[in-house]
Amino acid sequence: MNNISPKVQTQLGMLQQIQQQLQTVLSQKAQYEMAVREAKRAQEEISDSAEDAVMYMSVGTVMMQKKKTVVNTKLTEKVETLELRIKSLERQEQMLQGKFEQLQAQIKAALEGKSAPQAA
After folding, report:
1. Cα–Cα distance for residue pair 43/71, rounded to 1 Å
2. How many domains does the chain have?
3. pLDDT, position 114
4. Core-most of 13, 31, 55, 77, by most CB within 10 Å?
5. Which long-range contacts (C-beta less than 8 Å, at least 24 apart) are formed by 89-98?
């Protein structure tokens, strides 16, 4: 790495940083997608139960008895919120992916340009 210019070394560091950010975004997105699936599954389960069925909902560290309509409303709100976060993360993922590819191309061009004169 001693024969690589400081500019390319800086770009390589930035590339690694972008890659880590991308991995973080993808991890968060996967967690939110799993939470959406769980909430939708819960909605499916409660849709089959009677309107007066006893339901409990987690409120912090406490389970509270709630009406079916309240639980369903809260689950719907949760799904909508999580889907908005997923869309935001998808935009962030696309932006980071674009930066990553652009920086990768710049580094490749710099290295190829540098290695050509050395080979001659």
Report:
1. 9
2. 1
3. 66
4. 55
5. 89/25, 89/28, 89/29, 89/32, 90/29, 92/25, 93/22, 93/25, 93/26, 93/29, 96/18, 96/21, 96/22, 96/25, 97/22
Q: Which amino acid would we find at residue 34?
A: M
Residue at token pair 């890659």: 19
Structure-token pair, residue 113: 């340009």
With respect to residue 120, please indicate whether it lies within any of the assigned structural domains.
Answer: no
102 pLDDT exceeds 90? yes
The rounded Cα 109 to chain-centroid distance in angstroms is: 30
What is the torsion angle, in degrees rounded to the nearest 10, for the CA atoms of residue 14, residue 18, residue 24 and residue 30? -170
Q: Is residue 1 a part of any domain in this protein? A: no
- Per DSSP, the three-state class of 58 is strand
Domain region containing 94: 6-114
Give the model confidence (pLDDT) of 47-70 as tens digits: 989 888 889 999 899 999 999 999
